[in-house]
Structures are given as C-alpha cells and as structure tokens.
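Appendix B, Record 12. Input sequence as logged:
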Amino acid sequence: MKFALPFALALLLAGPALAQQQRPATCSRDLFQNEAGFRQQQSRLAAVANADQAAQCRVYREHVGYLQKSRTIFATCQSGGERARNVAEMDSELVNYRALIANRCGGR
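Logged structural output:
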C-alpha cells in the first residue's frame, strides 16, 4: 500500500510522455503530405471557381474527403494548442463545405 501512491503519481506524471510516444512513426511524412495536399486542394478549388455546378460539386465533395483525412492527421500527429487549432479549423471547414454542398449540390 505504501508504494501505491508513489506508483500512481509516477503514472500521472508519465502520462503525457506516454501519450506522445504513441504517435505513429509516419506522422512527419503524413503532416508533410497533408501540407502538399492542402496546396493541391486550393488549386483545385480555384480551378472550378467559374466551372459548371456539377464540376464544382464534385470538387467540393472531394474537398470534404480531404478535410476529413486532414483532421484525422492533425488529431493523431499533433498535440497541445497546435492540435486544438488545426482540428477546430478542419471541423469549421467541414461544416462550411457540407452546408455549401447541401445548398448548391442538392445535399448529395
């Protein structure tokens, strides 16, 4: 019983370090590719700015898929304030693009 409290305290203090160690080994690559994907998505969205509605809707739906993947990468590979900001930004963008699709693309 004497050792239970120090052991529990050690586990609490080690918790953040253990959580950081659980990051996948691919995170550096995933974050780099995510950044490249962001630039590609921006180009694709700009390219359909004056396109017909069907083309725009297709790209908007693909962008939602990118945002979902990006959110997962941020949630998995980042921590602290940076993680919170990026995940919140992806959540906000997902809401915006889903509303755009619902309004312009028949919700499909």
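Residues 3-9 have pLDDT under 50 and may be disordered.
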